[in-house]
Amino acid sequence: MPSRPSWRTLEPLIDEALDLSPAERLHWLADLASRSPTLAEAVSALLNEEDRADSSGFLTGTPEVTLAGLELGAYRLVRQLGEGGMGGSAENVCARSFCWRRNAHWHSGSQWRR
Predict the structure, then answer these.
(1) Structure letter (DSSP) for residue 95
(2) Are 28 and 17 in contact (CB under 8 A)?
(3) Tell me: the pLDDT tens digits for 61-73?
(4) Three-state SS string across 30-60, please?
(5) Which pTM does this prediction carry?
(6) How far apart are the C-alpha atoms of 78 and 86, rounded to whole Å?
(7) Residue 40 CB coordination number (10 Å)
(8) CA–CA separation, 13 vs 5, rounded Å?
(9) Are 84 and 101 in contact (CB under 8 A)?
C-alpha cells in the first residue's frame, strides 16, 4: 500500500492547481493522475474540500471582536477607543483612558503592559 503524500509534496501542487481555471485544472489533474495516481487523488481531495469551504462561506466577512468587559488587573474595559500597530487605547471603568501594548513575541495568555 503506498504511503500518503506529505504536505511538502502536496503544497506546491495545490498552489499550482489553484492558479488554474476550472477547465485547466481538470486537464492538469488528469495529467498528474497519469504520472502519479496517489498524488492526484490527494490533491483532488484537498481541492474538493477547498471548494466545499468556499461554497459554505468559510472565512467570509469580518467577525466583530470587542474588548469591552475585559478585565486587566484593576481595570475593566468599557469600550475600545482605537487601535493600531501592536496596541490600542481604551476607556476603563473609572472613565480614564489608558493605552496597552501587546508584545507579538509573548505566547502565553493575557500578558499586557500599561
Answers:
(1) S
(2) yes
(3) 777 777 777 787 7
(4) HHHHHHCHHHHHHHHHHHHHHHHHHHCCCCC
(5) 0.52
(6) 20
(7) 18
(8) 11
(9) no
